[in-house]
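If you are new to this repository, start here. Below is one unmodified record pulled from the training split, so you can see the exact layout before writing a loader.
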Amino acid sequence: MRPLEGITVVTLEHAIAAPFCTRQLADQGARVIKIERPGVGDFARGYDQRTHGLSSHFVWVNRSKESLALDLKAAQSATVLERLLHKADVLVQNLAPGAAARLGLSFEALHERFPRLIVCDISGYGNDGPYRDRKAYDLLIQSEAGFLSVSGTPDEPAKAGCSIADIAAGMYAYSNILAALIERGKTGRGRHIDISMLESMVEWMSYPLYYSYDDAPPPPRSGASHSTIYPYGPFPAGDGKTVMLGLQNEREWHAFCGQVLQQPALADDPRFDSNFKRSAARTELRAVIVQAFATLTAHQVIERLDAADIANAHVNDMHGVWHHPQLRARNRWTTVASPAGDLPALLPPGIRYAADARMDPIPALGEHTQAILAELGLEPGPDLGSEPGSQPAPLAPGQDRRPDSP
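And here is the target side for that same chain:
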């Protein structure tokens, strides 16, 4: 038995934050019923067609869910939602600001009728405050939370290469829902969870926040290097490849100088004999390291680093990750079905064997509409759903499909 078997989640979700949260719940065995707008669906379905014609974003965060195509503005939808929520343990939504409340789906509107229901709202800035109604996309939250101020090069900020603000919010939603389920087991009552993407990202920014406490200078942008620990980052080898390495303490610094650079006297050089000095003199020290590595291949550098017990890593691209020997050795890949056929999928972190996680298909838009309506004792109507298997067209550059409701 998987941990969340018997738990039913109804979700009005789009894009990444809420779908990422509910996919974690589905991985653990929960039944997740995803409500989508007929004919259009979650607008992330149209982001691209890179995965056998399916959107890479959608494939990532929507396996093991049931897709119910439902026009929430149609008269019959209220009956569908009422019957769904009678069966549900959790309602998750990340609609546009205020949309859920206008649909009568706020915690306050639902709690008296469904006292055991856990309601999780995910938004850019939270349910109150002066930013409540502002639109919030991942890059904008990275900027508001200060992430861009410490990421990139000294000359130009850079965003993260994946949706870290969405992921942060999704994971805090997931962990809070798990806590609320435990709490409900003790009290018998559900509760409201208000997840802000901004607050989730600011929590992740706590180290640079404290580093700049009391108006101290914030960490500088330092590219792929660490802003305050050195040497820690990428260094070129003589064969044109790059090696990533990191030192954490003085023992490692002495081993690095003696065994890797083969310059043991450098360890006691007064310019570099503590981390804060090495960080301040990083330009000068980098030149010494690059010169020492210039006669070595990346493989030889890594051999020396391993012998000295210095942490290091390959600089992999996405193709390197698909074929990573550690993931292969630990059997971390399985497959999931989809409207485009079987696709590889990484086992959820913490799950040891594929049978321990729910790894069911990625749904076509409206694929489960008729079955769910029949389960609720309802007949499909003209405003309930679309033909199973339909997929929206991909978004054109600059096009926005963020709805008030799915």
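Two things worth knowing about this chain: The chain is about 35% helix and 15% strand. Confidence is low (pLDDT under 50) at residues 385-406.
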